[in-house]
Amino acid sequence: MNSFLQGRVSVVVGDITRQATDALVNAANSTLLGGSGVDGAIHRAGGAQILEECRRLRDTRYPGGLPTGEAVITTGGRLPARYVIHTVGPIWEQHAGSEAELLAACYRNSLALAVEHGLASIAFPAISTGAYGYPPDKAAQVASEAIREFLTTESGGAEASAARDKLGEVRLIFFSPPSAEIFLRNHKFE
Ligand code: AR6
Questions:
Q1: Which of 106, 113, 159, 164 is deepest in the core (most CB within 10 A)?
Q2: In the predicted model, what is the mean pLDDT of the chain?
Q3: Positive or negative torsion for Cα 12, 88, 167, 5
Q4: For atom 34 of ligand 1, which residue has the closest CA?
């Protein structure tokens, strides 16, 4: 069973930069100016236009950097995805016990941006589970709960709920079969 919430969420092994969803999420850092892992791969595959927009965001809205848990949207440049949503995950054991809340905020705020832009599909990497050291079993619980709550909430009235319903595909991308298996053993979708 690799799909959840009536098929709206799927678990896939692959490279996030190859996903042809409307948006893909970047596990960025607060500088928004690139890094290793997913961040490096996205900037390499997407080209200079993404970095240009990130620089502009730093110069205008986030001179001090994008805070942990928040998200911003840029073009997808040369990627198959139209947009990249950049979010900054928590660094494990560096946030005085707020790590789970901050990781949940990454998923919630990224999904909210996708809905605001009227998108129908989004792909996520396993935010914070690489360089930022978040234990993948714990991250699976937090990510799945945050996604489930976002997709199934009734709040905001008919218009908000129609916009949320338009987001019909949430793809969770894992770089290796073992990391997908850890997710599948620990998620809280049901
Ligand atoms: N596609 C899908 N998953 C991937 C890919 C890929 N191409 N590459 C790595 N992963 P990380 P973080 C997996 O380190 O922990 C950067 O330098 C990887 O196996 O990319 O949030 C940023 O600039 C891991 O499970 O993100 C920040 O400084 C997961 O994606 C910092 O790293 C996330 O690993 C962010 O660290």
A1: 106
A2: 97
A3: positive
A4: 130
Name residue 112's amino acid.
A
Element of type H or E holding 144: helix 136-152
Cα separation, 148 vs 133, whole angstroms: 24
CATH for 2-186 is 3.40.220.10
The CA-based dihedral angle spanning residues 53, 57, 63, 69, taken in that order and rounded to the nearest 10 degrees = -110
69-100 pLDDT, tens digit each: 999 999 999 999 999 999 999 999 999 999 99
Q: Residue 156 — pLDDT band, cuts 50, 70, 90?
A: confident
Ligand 1 centroid from CA 40, angstroms: 8
What distance in Å separates the CA atoms of residue 32 and residue 94, rounded to the nearest whole number? 19
Mutate which of 13, 31, 38 for ligand 1? The one with the most ligand atoms within 8 Å of its CB, which is 38
pLDDT at 155 > cutoff 90: no
Instruction: Name the residue among 133, 20, 122 with its Cα closest to residue 80.
Output: 20
Q: Would you state the structure tokens that stand for residue 142, as one six-digit string?
A: 């937090």
Please give the order of strands across the beta sheet that includes 9-13: 3-4, 9-13, 169-174, 121-124, 23-28, 83-88, 71-75
Residue 137 among the catalytic residues: no
Per-domain boundaries in the chain? 2-186
